[in-house]
Amino acid sequence: MYKPGEKVQLRAVVVNPSLVPNYNTPIDIHIKDGNEKRVIEWTKLYPKNGVIAEELQLSAQSVSGNWTIVAAALGRNTTKAFTVADYVLPTFNVEVVLPTYATRNRSEVTATVKAFDANGKAVKGDLTLE
């Protein structure tokens, strides 16, 4: 997942049926945003050391949704999707550690509950079980 304003980096490799890189085949690549609008296109890229490497700097106002990278070579298209969305790190995480098994004979189960902030520091709070 990418946030608006981040950089998307991509690599493409053309291989023959024996999975050997093909250095002489040009690749056309384009990226479509979450509205299916083509936002960038590279044509007739030739691999350097067997690999095409490109990048796209997303604007701060990029469209959210599922974006698609389309690479075309030798009459075939290959696609890869990625998501662009605004996301916020959770303010804290809760970890509950339970025994690997429990039996009906016991009316109690012992568990460990821990809470951490986004930086991994312990968070104090109250726990209510019903």
Automatic annotation (TrEMBL):
Residues 1-84, 87-129 form the Macroglobulin domain. Pfam families: MG2, MG3. GO terms for molecular function: endopeptidase inhibitor activity. Signal peptide: none annotated. The keyword Signal applies. Gene3D superfamilies: 2.60.40.1930, 2.60.40.1940. It comes from the Eukaryota. Keywords: Signal, Thioester bond. This is Macroglobulin domain-containing protein.
